[in-house]
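Recall that a protein's primary structure is simply its ordered list of amino acids. Everything else, from secondary elements to tertiary packing, is in principle encoded there. The following example makes that idea concrete.
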Amino acid sequence: MTSCADCLAWGLTYARGMCMACDNFASRQYRHLVGDCGACRRWVPLKNGYCRLCWCQAKLDRALVTDHLNEPLAPYLPHVRYHQLFLADLYNRRARPPVPAMPRLTGRAHTPLVAHDPRGDGAQLALFTDLPRTYRPRSIDLRSVAVPDNPWLAWGLHLAHVLGETRGFGPSVRSRINRHLVTLLATHHDGDTVRVSEFAHVLHRHGGGVNHVIDILSAMGVLVDDRPNVFDTWLAAKREGLAPAIADHLDGWARVLRDGGPRRHPRQHGTIVGYVLAVRPALLSWSERYDHLREVTRADVLAYLDTLRGTTREHTLGALRSLFGWAKSEAAIFANPCARMKMPKAPSRIWQPLTGAEIAATIEAADTPQAKVCLVLAAVHAARYGHIRALQLDDVDLGNRQIVLAGRLRHLDELTYRVLAGWLDHRQRRWPHTANPHLLLSPESALRHGPVSAPYILNLRGLPANLERLRIDRQLEEALACGGDPLHLAAVFDIDTSTAIRYATNARRLLHDTHAAVSPGCSPTQVPVPEDEAGPHSGSARKPLGSNELP
């Protein structure tokens, strides 16, 4: 670092001993105008008779006199008698001189040489291990430029090549990962670590692919994943507004639900979220009056439950019983205010069969191969969201017309067979090199081994016949066809006995109401049923998912 020959600023200098701004000032249309400056009398490149340093000083003088930034600087230039020096490249900063763009290459990158872990028997430990590092993207095209000579980078590129071959990455994804590895490992040494918090934002701004880079660095053993835990961040937000002691109890209870404990099994993530969201309004109300959960009485719990109705009331009571039960077992409270507190269970809902018009609207909305697979599996085989996401290629046997759904072998009907065959053809054309074993794929999951995300499954929000409603209707149709036999339902759909009894009861209620409407001289099969309200027991009027409905 030295002083600029023109503006005298201290900083980095480039060609002819000038800073970047002065180099731009002298390299453009004013380069041939070199002479004595009209204010400082120096022999330097000029613009309208004045040097760049005097122009900068005139701008400072104008700011002392007026706030109008659009006022011309020319009247201030003859009055410049001194200069306020500054650091180079910080005053009216401009972009770096343009670099000629490298011609676009279309060839494939060279296969990296096989490399191994470069760690030796011993390594010099770093003196300062907590110093933050700044990563800047490097514009290196490995198809035309030699790989920087670093054994750690060579090992990382080899692991990236193996990962790309295993997961079927395309050329663009491979090139992006290689660029990121050059950015992170070009100057890597033994004993260094790479922190996710220091490079994640850089990679996101320049092409993404953070998860793949994290997998490679984890395999190399140099990654420090210091990102905050998603659950901890979410739970910390739910503590806001609560009394400190009550917030601590909420935190401890939620972590026991997640991790389990003595005589407690871990709960699913959805259950934990539902429980915390259910009790938080009550805890916020009690935090305005109390400082601790031991001050909450049975009357407080009943008063809050009286403001709720239906299933929300039942769910909130279950969550509060879990919270106070945990607090009593941890000796955080003296008595459980929810002990032996029960609410009358609401009667089970009586589902009505879907109409042909409702199912036809859903069929019209499923206009993609992936949507048709979800629709058929839910409407014909009563598959849940999770079962559809978890399906793998090995579960589908088109040759023998069989599918393993939720661990149970099922035979494929003609409609399901044609839809699955069409999806597999589309899957092969769209992602020919993917190594993901799951049946359904998305542009993101095709690069991984996991299932598609939950929102990717067919979303029929706003329609009466969504996937969950189609699954319920399929089981109700079978219950009506077998006359409400719970053993038959449990054997066909592999469901719990209580669930089978509930569907059987629903079917018997529908059949009883149908028979009650029949006149004494008329048989049940002669009951007039409108075409748009026909149930699954009404013959051809309830077959919108026939073999010719989905192309």
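Residues 310-329 form the longest helix (20 residues). The beta strands are 2-3, 10-11, 34-36, 43-45, 194-195, 223-224, 396-397, 402-405, 408-411.
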